[in-house]
Amino acid sequence: MSELKNRHDFVLLFDVQDGNPNGDPDAGNLPRIDPETGEGLVTDVSLKRKVRNFILFTQDKKPGFDIFVKEKAILNVSIGDAYKGLGIDLNEKPKSEKDGKKRKEPGEAQGSEVEEGRKWMCSTFFDVRAFGAVMSTGANAGQVRGPVQLTFARSVSPIVSLEHSITRMAVTKESDAEKQGGDNRTMGRKNTVPYGLYRAHGFVSPYLAKQTGFSSGDLDLLFKAFMNMFELDRSAARGLMSMRKVVVFKHGSELGNAPAHVLFDRVHVDRVQTEKPVRSFKDYTVKVDTVGMPKGVEVMELAG
Questions:
Q1: Lower Cβ count inside 10 Å, N or C end of the chain?
Q2: What angle, 0 to 180 degrees and rounded to 10, lies between the N-to-C axes of helices 75-86 and 112-124?
Q3: Residue 77 CB neighbour total at 10 angstroms
Q4: pLDDT for the residue 135
Q5: Is residue 167 part of a domain?
Q6: pLDDT tens, 10-35?
Q7: Per-residue model confidence (pLDDT) at position 173
């Protein structure tokens, strides 16, 4: 795959209808919200999780496209596998004299071994190559700063969090059934957002891509993941989530031809009407101002 030579900045616009896009475990799993503005929030971690799952589902067992941070994974085991794959025994003395005559800590890499382990992790795991990772635990493969960075997503308008009572026509234990005289009902609660359009921003650095091996092919796959990640992540709790638009600003150089915030300001999301509550993507207009675009910047609008 070819080396990434252009800086990219991008805007993600996605929405939720009658669902909880990202529950807060510290608040009873209520939809995340900015208490001062009432605007909804979705963390960058939540978005990256969906990208990781998309890569797992679509690139299964393809060399170089495994996922490091996946559900139920034990990270130190994966880090240890790097040195097994490299044929480095971390319980023996270092092979290179530069790394010392004896191992400081059995089972832990040191010196140039850490760099070899880091390269192996980058070439093996897509998410390490893209988002970076802290791998200094266990066998120690160092740390990687990823070329792809995301912000929190914030709703364009304030959201309303609704709480619904739900009933399960069964109980968990026999003692619960006895208490109810055989009625066997369990009450619960579910929190949803009637509608919310969220906006997130992202950045891709060619300089950091060189360090991790993140290629132009990886970037194409990343944008494909953004466009389709909700299609493989359906859940009753999340309602109807859809990627509405991905706006990409491709720079003509590695350093970039304009500040990211100047380009982001060109993406205008406005309400069509303000008399009624927002309940649909049709209640908004999305326009990208291309007049007077900085020289060397190309705009790509990817439909959701």
A1: N
A2: 110
A3: 10
A4: 97
A5: no
A6: 999 999 999 999 999 999 999 999 99
A7: 85
Helix (H) or strand (E) run with residue 260 in it: helix 260-264
Query: 56 in a domain, yes or no?
Result: yes
At residue 175 the predicted structure's pLDDT band, cuts being 50, 70 and 90, is: confident
Q: Which domain holds residue 297?
A: 8-160+190-303
Exposed/middle/buried for residue 134 (C-beta within 10 Å: 0-12, 13-18, 19+) = exposed
CA angle 55, 196, 302 (to 5 degrees): 45
Instruction: Give me the chain's average pLDDT, please.
Output: 94
Instruction: Tell me, yes or no, whether 298 lies in a domain.
Output: yes
Are 278 and 271 in contact by the 8 Å Cβ rule? The answer is yes
Confidence of residue 184 (pLDDT cuts 50, 70, 90): confident
Domain assignment present for residue 62? The answer is: yes
AA identity, residue 188: G
HSE, side-chain direction, 13 A CA sphere, residue 86: 25
Three-state SS at 227: helix
